[in-house]
Each structure stands twice: as C-alpha cells, then as structure tokens.
Amino acid sequence: MTVLHAQGLGKKYKRRWALTGCTLEIEAGHVSGLVGPNGAGKSTLLNIASGMLEPTTGRIEVCGGVPGSGPEQLAKVGYVAQNTPVYPGLTVEDHLRLGARLNPAWDEPLARHRIERIGLDPKQAAGKLSGGQRAQLALTLGIAKRPELLLLDEPVAALDPLARREFLQDLMEAVAEHELSVVMSSHLVTDLERVCDHLIVLVDSQVRIEGDVEELLSTHHRLTGPRRDVSSLPSDQHVVSSSHTDRQSTVLVRTEAPILDPAWTVGKLTLEDLVLEYMSSQAAARPALEVLR
C-alpha cells in the first residue's frame, strides 16, 4: 500500500517556487527519513501532504485521498510541525480534551497513558513546559488521533540531546505498537540513522536517492586507487561522484555487484557520508537517480 504519492508537485509563493516538479512514492510500514539542504522543499512537501497547503501544480495522494479534502481524510494523517506547536494558554488537560473533540478515532487511554508515563502535569499550561515536554505533548496529540501516516517536520531540532533521545525512543515505541507509517524530516542524520529504515534525499525539489537504508548502504562503495578515467569502470558501477589527485582517484559508486578489481581499496559509507554525497553540488547537478527498493 502506498501512503504518499506525489507527481510533478509544485508550490509557488508569489514569484518564488518553494517546490517544483517533485515526484515521490512512499510505501506503508516505513519510518522514512526526509533529508536535504535548506530550501530543498521538505517543509513545503510535508505541509502539502498534511493538507495545510494546496499545491500550485501537480498532484498528491495521501492514504488514498486528497490531503485536507474532508474530516475523514484529515483523520488519516497526524502532523507535528517544525516548532512542535501547542497552545501556550491551554493546559495539558485542555489539549487532550481538544484532541478528543477534533479527532473521531481519538484514543483517550493511549493519550492519558503517555502523558502519565512522560510525567506531564495535566494542570500545567503548555506555555510553561520545556521544549522537550512540548515536543512530547505534540507527539502525543499526533499519535493519539490514531493516524495511518504521521508527518514530523524537524521535531527534535530545538531539543537538547537527552530530550531528543527520549523523543525518538517514544516515537519508535509508538511505531512498533501501533504500526504507524512515518515521514520525518531532519538535518540530524545521526538521529535518522537510529529510527529510520527508509531514506529520501531531496535536493532542489528532486528526489536524488530513495530506498531501504540497509540496501542503500550495502550498494554504495567508496573506491580508492591509482588515478584512472571513471568512464573505464564496468557499466554496472554507477558513478555518483569522483575526485582525483595527480596519482589517486576516489570514486563513489552504486552497484549490486561485487567489486572485483584488486587495484581498488573498497571503503564502507555511513549514512551521513551517503547523504552528504547526494546533497553535494556535484551529485545534485546530476539527473534524479533511479529509486532503490
């Protein structure tokens, strides 16, 4: 089942395009990390998927419907925006009551259990909570509505390391218990590496690489050896990037075949290495790549 399908999606603000020609398909059951440089269109994409914005061009389908098209569709999607918005003047208890009023599938026992477990005082105003506590309250509201898809836009960006770890642990517990599909944007690749099994790199509104994290890491290799023309490499080794000195070449290749040339020293990549390669100007200038499934 596909939880998000976008085709030629674009959004224009006055004279500026924040998203252009974005095509993407995300299957259910994944925790997908959405990464890319500032201005790539990540927040705009998530706002359109949640129904907060209407696209200027293209089409998008989320959980089998048009985002924001009615109460039934809105109930399928949970959304925690970048500033983990809550109402400062309302108490934690008020937020739970509001969630129950607005969401037909609201899971009251789940919401109460989470609030008690993370130690939030129901009588405390949201404006008096710490950043981590506000993020946990926003996450509780997003999960307790029992969505099919949970969208998270930089949910831990402003949190300290301990609060980030607690937030991500709670997220993974919720995913495991309630079989959520999640799309989470973040600049913190190390956090994504802890929780995501699927990766999407978005550069200039285009999907540069997408696929299962383990498969991406197992099919990308950094080759180091005597200087050579990369066009001489086997046809099944797709060159992502290359650099050269007078005597040495360093090449990042994508291939499912083993590297048999003994002249190469083959190095593994971390997820951060992979993301940075595809975000770099050299990789970004290349055509959008084939999706890895």
UniProtKB/TrEMBL annotation:
Which key words are in the record?
ATP-binding, Nucleotide-binding, Transport
Transmembrane spans:
none
- Kindly give the InterPro entries that the UniProt entry links to this protein: AAA+_ATPase, ABC_transporter-like_ATP-bd, ABC_Transporter_VariousFunc, P-loop_NTPase
Q: Which SMART domains match?
A: AAA
Extract the CDD domains matched here.
Answer: ABC_DR_subfamily_A
According to the UniProt entry, its GO molecular function terms are: ATP binding; ATP hydrolysis activity
Q: Where is the ABC transporter domain?
A: 4-229
Disordered: where is this region?
A: 225-247
The answer to whether UniProt assigns keyword ATP-binding to this entry is: yes
Q: Where is the composition biased (Polar residues)?
A: 232-247
By what name is this protein known? ABC transporter ATP-binding protein
Which organism does this sequence originate in? Amycolatopsis acidicola
